[in-house]
Amino acid sequence: RGDHLAAITSHDAFGHFGDAYGLTFLAPSGYSTESEPTARGIARLIGQIKRENIRALYIENMSNPRVIERIASETGAAVGGRLHADALSRAGGPADSYEAMFKHNVATLLAGLAR
Q1: What are the strands of the beta sheet with 78-83, ordered from one edge?
Q2: Do the beta carbons of residue 34 and residue 64 sit within 8 Å?
């Protein structure tokens, strides 16, 4: 478990969730899955992850995993799983309704944060 209750996601889609449940979400990009993070933004985030010993990184279902995988390799943090933010999964998948998505995301977050 890290020293700081924070999670890194692909973009800032979980702000309201974090506010409601006391979890800080940090992201290299803004609110849009289309926006690309800057090299400076990624470097700043990598520095913060190392300083605060943040261990939980997550890939979002609608985002390219490349940036999160790069951050994981440079910090030694593990990717804690895939969160659903902007779209549900296919029928029968782990997040095929809003309720299933919420349960899936909470279980995935808890598993990653418990490391």
Answers
A1: 24-26, 6-8, 56-60, 78-83
A2: no
- Contacts within 8 Å (CB) and 24+ apart, 99-108: 105/17, 108/58, 108/80, 108/81, 108/82, 108/83
DSSP state of 38: P
pLDDT digits (tens, 9 = 90+) for 16-49: 888 888 888 887 765 444 556 778 888 888 998 8
92 contact partners, CB below 8 Å, separation of at least 6? none
DSSP state of 23: -
Sole residue written with tokens 């490349």: 66
Joined together, the tokens standing for residue 56 give 């939980």
Helical axes 66-75 vs 39-52, angle rounded to 10°: 40
Q: What is the pTM of this model?
A: 0.77
| Cβ–Cβ under 8 Å, residues 71 and 77 | yes
Give the tens place of pLDDT for each residue, 61-105.
Answer: 877 788 888 889 999 888 888 899 878 999 999 999 999 999 999
